[in-house]
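Lab meeting tomorrow. Please check the following:
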Amino acid sequence: MKKYFGVVLFLIVTVICLSGCFYDLVIPESDLNLE
């Protein structure tokens, strides 16, 4: 179970990082519009 937990945790962190980079590239204009 610990091995699977480590893999799942790694995947979650990777997805979060990719999502963060994706939003940083796509939403800068939206952030300016909100302000």
